[in-house]
Structure formats: structure tokens, C-alpha cells
Design brief:
Blueprint: H1 8-61, E1 67-68, E2 76-77, E3 79-81, E4 85-91, E5 101-111, E6 114-121, E7 124-132, E8 134-140, E9 145-146, E10 149-150, E11 156-162, E12 174-176, E13 188-189, E14 194-195
Antiparallel strand pairs: 1-2, 3-4, 3-10, 4-5, 5-6, 6-7, 8-9, 8-11, 11-12, 13-14
């Protein structure tokens, strides 16, 4: 009569199958962890872009059409923009506890092969966006787009950002209309080089 039990071959086959199953499970677990980490990084990157776009929208919408009095005979709105910079007046942030308007400058800088978007508001400077492939500004009068603008506020301002192919972040074109297109209460006085009756 044969005794009950496993042969050496059966045990070896069982161990081989268990090892294969463990390898497959571990590989699936590693893939799942990498996918989770990638999704979290992508979500964080997209959240950062939403914050940056909201900040830019707020600043550009508040652009103020103050007069540049450097040439009193030919007053012009204090706004200048190019493909890689924008310079305008905007209300001072409440956090500064300073009434009036401050100069705001948006500029594109290079970090090696990467583009960076910097913002200076008064004395405060910060990098709003890093590690982009390209960042470009454009301006419109409502009919056509151009890469430079001076002397008046444009009707629309576009900020276009592209990223490297494997970056994963997506930036839909940000198109903003400044809310104030004229200082209706200003009567320009060339003798004092700004609006009459204002300090």
C-alpha cells in the first residue's frame, strides 16, 4: 500500500508556481504604486497651474490705464508689452497696506533650457511658473493678435505656455480682458503731468 504525501517533483512545481505568482503580484503592486504617484504628481501640477492662472487673471483684469507723463504734450497710457514681458499699473495688494497703484512687471526668464515666468509687484518679486518649454504674451485690439503693444490698454491679453512632451501639465491659453479701459474721471493737465485735482 502507497503512503500518502507529496513527491519531490510536486513540491518543486508548487514552489515554482508560488514564486511566479509572487513575482507577478509584486510587479503589479509596483506598477500600481508608480501609477498612483504619477497621478498625484499630475494632480498637484495641474492645481499649481490653476493657482497661477487665477493670479495672472486677477492682476491683468485690474490693470489700470494711468497716464505716463514723461511726454506732457503726448500723454499715453502707462502700459507696454512684448512677447516676453508686460509692464503695467495695478492696484496695490491689500496685504501691502499701501493705497494707490504699483508697477507690475511680468517677464519670461530662462533657466537653462526651461522658461520661467517671474512677477514683480512693487518691491516684491516671485517666480510664478517654472520648468516650461516656452511662455509667450500676445495682445489684441479685438480683431487681430500682435506680440507687442504700447501706449493704450489692449482689449485682450493672451498668455500661451507650452511644456515638454513628458511633462504632463496642460495650460489652456489664458485670455484676459482688462476691466478698466479708460480713466473717465481724469482730465489730463500737462503742467502737472497727471490728472487735474489729484495728488
Amino acid at each position: 500500500m502507497r503512503e500518502a504525501g507529496f513527491t519531490l517533483i510536486e513540491i518543486l512545481v508548487t514552489l515554482a508556481l508560488l514564486s511566479l505568482l509572487a513575482v507577478l503580484l509584486f510587479g503589479g503592486l509596483r506598477f500600481g504604486v508608480r501609477a498612483w504617484d504619477g497621478a498625484q504628481a499630475h494632480g498637484a501640477g495641474m492645481e499649481e497651474l490653476h493657482v497661477v492662472q487665477d493670479r495672472l487673471r486677477h492682476e491683468i483684469e485690474a490693470a489700470y490705464p494711468g497716464y505716463d507723463a514723461s511726454d506732457p504734450l503726448h500723454p499715453r497710457i502707462d502700459f507696454s508689452g512684448g512677447e516676453a514681458h508686460m509692464d503695467f499699473l495695478a492696484p496695490a495688494p491689500q496685504a501691502l497696506d499701501t493705497p494707490g497703484r504699483i508697477r507690475t512687471v511680468l517677464s519670461v526668464a530662462r533657466d537653462g533650457n526651461d522658461a520661467r515666468l517671474d512677477m514683480e509687484a512693487g518691491d516684491a518679486a516671485s517666480a510664478l511658473l517654472r520648468h516650461a518649454a516656452s511662455i509667450r504674451f500676445a495682445y489684441s485690439d479685438g480683431d487681430r493678435w500682435t506680440d507687442s503693444w504700447n501706449g493704450t490698454l489692449p482689449k485682450l491679453i493672451r498668455i500661451r505656455v507650452s511644456f515638454k512632451p513628458r511633462d504632463g501639465r496642460i495650460w489652456p491659453d489664458l485670455i484676459v480682458a482688462p476691466h478698466i479701459d479708460a480713466d473717465s474721471g481724469c482730465v489730463y493737465d500737462p503742467s502737472i503731468r497727471h490728472c487735474a485735482g489729484r495728488p
